[in-house]
Amino acid sequence: MNNPAPSKNPSFGRLVVVVALAAHLFPGISAAQQSELSPYSRYGFGLIGQLHAPSYAGLGGMETTMLNGYQFHPNNPASATYLNQTTFQASGIGNQIQLKQGDASATAAYGSPGPLGIVVKRNNGKNALILNLSPYSNSGYSISRSDTHDGIGLANERYEGNGGLTAMNIGWARVFKGSKFVRAGGDSIRIQNNALHLGIQSHYIFGQISRVSTLDIIDPTFLDHRSRFTAQHRSVSATAGLVYDQLLRVRYDDRGDFEQSVSLRVGGVFTPSTNLHSSLASIDETTQTLGGIPVPLDTAFYSERLNHRARMPRTLSLGSSVHFDRNNGMRIAAGIEYKTSAWGAVASEFAPEMKDGFNWMAAESMHLGLQFNPGNPEQRHPTWGKTTYRLGLNRQLQPYAINGHQVQTQAITGGFTLPLVGSRSLSRLHFGTEIGERSTQAGALEETFVRFHIGVSLMPFFKNNWLIPRLYD
């Protein structure tokens, strides 16, 4: 995008006033997929990969091995085989963000939808069909500042953007299980020793992002300037997920009753590099502001490319976790995960408007997560005692370097999953919270955000399990 004052590109080194950060809840398709009203979303495709299903948001955004039987992860098709049966899930997100630079500050609260999908799976079956729709990136900001320029006097600058990209997934997953005999008292019993979960899904990314910058000169003898850039993107790829479960140790008492076990999970998710098709339009206009509304007078520059070809980066996630189970219902799991996307390797093929004002770099993130269920089922609360609790940490580097400094995010997370006891099914309510900050370097714009995730996963009532053949007519 061509800015009227390139030296004042809002990398926020000279930000004077942040005036407006506001959004309505679900005002339209493009705005509804926004999960961040951040000035850092101005660059490239906007902020990428910020959304997760609630239970995984509470684990610091882990997606490889910290999986459960009540909610699947949209980014990992192998997670579908951990579900007990057909599951529909949906979620919403509430956000509050505070921006600060020097003495200037702004605060906004807004909402957005989260991932939505369904997995079709026979009760305790080995195969699963995946249908899912979730936000991929988002761009939503409104920044204003005033400054005095030599020769023209006081001028107002405005930078606005909206839109985002959505990911649609259709996939299939299958689990392969191994077993062995172990000693239990004076006898032997057959148990599951290991399992290999495999999944693959389409990864169709589509959507539109728009940016507008306006220079409004207070002196009416000077004309104003406006630059507009609109990009529609679409890309088709595939995502593969793999998780391997290995039982490390198990113990049974003399009567053959289970006592405790320890297992290890390792896994990964991979999305290869693929083609990106973009329709791009840029226009620079001379305008005159009348009643606060810029009226176009003349077109200084116009460019349109209806099918620009580029590449999307390959993405790889690797993780491992240890799971401890006891016969009183206590379960503890802890894991670590690393994720990288090679945005720098494909940046040279992006259109010039997709590289203006920043440098593309490899995106990286590190995630830590802890999940536990309390034991002693006879003494615990009928609802809270059956709840799964989660804690997590993450550190992310967005693929954008502004003035040589990469955008980075740190967050601490938490959450829990409640059973819907009255439903007499395995349906669950999920809650997740993220508290974090985002910045580039000392003295730059600093963002502090609090994000609340709430979701539901619905499963059939146990007397109405789907995909089970009837025993009678």
Q: What report would you give on this structure?
A:
The protein has 473 residues and is mainly beta. It has a single domain (6-464), classed as Porin (Beta Barrel). 3% of the residues lie in helices and 61% in strands. The chain is built from three helices and 19 strands. The protein has helices at 29-32, 54-57, 343-346, and strands at residues 47-48, 87-101, 104-120, 127-138, 141-149, 153-184, 187-217, 224-252, 258-271, 274-290, 293-312, 315-326, 331-341, 359-360, 363-373, 388-402, 405-419, 428-439, 446-458. Strands 2-3-4-6-7-8-9-12-13-15-16-17-18-19 form a 14-stranded antiparallel beta barrel. A hairpin with a 6-residue loop joins strand 3 (104-120) and strand 4 (127-138). The longest helix has 4 residues, at 29-32. The termini are far apart.
